[in-house]
Predict the structure.
Amino acid sequence: MAAQRIDKLLAAIGCCSRREAAVFAKKGAVAVDGVICRDVSRKVDPETCCLTFQGRRIGYQEHVYLMMHKPLGVLSATEDRDQKTVLDLLPRQYRSRGVFPVGRLDKETSGLLLLTDDGALGHALTSPRHHVPKVYHAVADGILGQSDMDAFAAGLELRDGTKCRPAKLDIRQVENEKSDVLVTVQEGKYHQIRRMLAARNAPVLTLERLCEGPVRLDPALQPGQWRELTEQELESLRAADGAGKGCE
Ligand code: URA
């Protein structure tokens, strides 16, 4: 990449603002190839030199792509006056570079949430014109069967008359009048899964998202934990952003 001013780089990466960069540099927090640099107007290429901020090596990334295991009780929003949001679970470096959740999960839904500062990919993944499949695991209060699977496949009508695109209902287990199911949808209407199951007289008891397009929730992530997407996950997401591809 082309060399850029140090203050611009530090701000783009989310370490601090450009103004703060000058203050930090004066205090000796910035080094280039091991030598303290107090001049933040100096241009460097972090791919070919070793730029450090507070002792930490800085590598420039144009965008960041994260997966989070969203916990229950947290809002899928960038900020809220009163309640905790998923952005509150990330370190400042991500928040200050404008990372946002790709789509929403209800406060009482857990599971896979993608976050990025790449507006184009975020838009492609949530656009109603692209049919990126999402897989949810739900426990519903009621006995679901073949007629419900058929109704999902035909395209359900919700209680308020809204029509859904064809969806897939897999029934994993029915026990004690509760159904353990997987639902795959290719759209993202408000409270969609809750409303779909309510339309079949089986209200949701618990709801968790497992997959978005080809990306699957990493089982190693505990609720509240997150990690960057691997190159492979990112490539598969880019390839799937309008192609209706789901997890294998
Ligand atoms: N459908 C819902 O009802 N809630 C979610 O959070 C996601 C899909």
About this structure: Residues 105-106, 109, 191-194, 207 surround uracil (CB under 6 Å). Residues 231-240 form the longest helix (10 residues). The helical segments are 6-13, 18-26, 92-95, 119-126, 146-154, 192-199, 231-240. The two ends are 36 Å apart (CA to CA).
